[in-house]
Predict the structure.
Amino acid sequence: MKNKIIADMFDEMASMLSIDETASSRFEVNAYKKAALTLATLQEPIEEVYANGGIEALMGLPGVGKGLAGKIEEFLKTGRIEKYDLLKKKYPIDFKSLTLIEGLGPKKIVALYRALGVKDLESLKKAIESHKIRSLPGFGEKSEDVLRKGMELLSTSKGRMLLGDALPVAESIVKKLLESGMVEKAMIAGSTRRMRETVGDLDILAISKRGKEVMDFFSSIDDVESIIVKGDTKTTVWLNIGLSCDLRVIKPESFGAALQYFTGNKEHNIKVRKIAIKKGYKLNEYGIFDKRGKILPFTGEESIYKKLDMQYMPPEMREDRGEVELSLEHKIPKLIELSDIRGDLHTHTKETDGANTIEEMADAAMALKREYFATTNHTKSLRIARGMNENQFREFFKHVDKLNDALQGRIKILKGAEMDILKDGSLDLDESLLKEMDCVLGAVHSAFNMNEEEMTNRIIKALDSGRIHILAHPTGRVINGREAYPLNLEKVLEAAERNNVIMEINAFPNRLDLSDTNIMLASKYKVLFSIGTDAHRTSHMQFMRYGVGTARRGWLQKKRIVNALPLTDLQKLFSR
DNA sequence: GCCGTTTTCGGCCCGACTGTTTTCAGTCG
């Protein structure tokens, strides 16, 4: 797949063109950036797009016209882009690494290159250490400092952080702001509000008349390690968890517009703004304005969309994946909500690698108002997790039966397993035991190094056994950990469809597997979904919200989520 | 360089903050 290579080349060309006199305008630079983004987020290999539809298909991609389609074609045919090579000859600079440094853009990079020969992180480091930057025109002592800090930050930064790590911190900061008594309202915005699986920074909005004081308070809370920028309306700090956090103080009448503006991703916002312009308005983070520049009296986020004749859509959808068009047609689906969830079909106990007893898990589930949950311990092949054999499961289930009796229907514990799908696609437990179980998850935990065909066939064989209710964490990816195993998901989905196998949306924060985009793919098939927490301790049962968020990002409705069903309906479904 | 319900020219999202300036350029989101 050459998408990323070409996207990076276009991004670099944008950097070079932004300081090169041969560029026709800054809009040409933007065109390269836009096309780079299209390529970087394209799901299908660009070489396939080209093979199937030629240059016309390339020109069908957003932001790709005749010129850039020609350059993509040139690269696919020759492995080179002449214009790229020409520019690169002029600017032999590693823009990709250097632009990662906060405060360093193309113009400053080229200024440093021309004056000091800075062309990569290594030579930038030397230039900083030799204190030559401070005497350059346009630079000073402070900018040298900023670059030094930027380099340090880059080397210690862990990149994007798991939503599951970032959201609780964001919530605690909002709480502190509210408790300070200085703000009337505070809310999380940005990718955290969209429940994106990882976040690059936190965005928090607050209403207050005392901007300066709020910023003083914010920059002194104990989560803050250092202050990056500080103004009366916007302050950015570096948090001790290794993430930056923006706080914006907004006037009450602008809060809805600000929330709208700082929630959608960039592409969503640009589309919405363009719709505003077409209707004769101007939309920015302060409000919606008429032709004479007068602010219209809309305070809520919903009323902004309404004024544009758009249907309100949940934050999780605002990724420019077709929701703007649906909204204009007033066809936004009603998405699954956390309150729709009645049970949890993926949990472990201390009998294998869990931390808590089944009694403790039941108490935790009841505290969360679950009507049922499945206990699904690992099976014997997974030795590292002390997987259980048939006899151990039978003993454990006797205990579960007694507990169910004692609970007197306050909650129902379903007897299940997270059974290994072995290397050859066979199952890790006897059929007779599987028949006794309420809920069988199938999962791959070993031999990840197969090729795509082998792995696909392995899983299909297991699904065709007819003994698996749910395929757990279907792609095996671990966010910031390991790639998904090679898999033809479409073929697996076909097998799931014909065997009535439910696809799991694993809610564990570093899994979220299926992912949002894979859910969108899967929802085109006649399959149902189960959102399971994979809880290994009682507190993990609260991960459900991340699974629900991911399902919402995949536009799923309640009717497709099996653990939103009442118990009797679920049992009917499982007994099929 | 892209794009079209003001279509093949003339627009292209828009404002805050910082540092180095003395009115603004560069960068970011």
Observations:
- Residues 3-137 of chain A form a domain with the DNA polymerase; domain 1 fold (CATH 1.10.150.110).
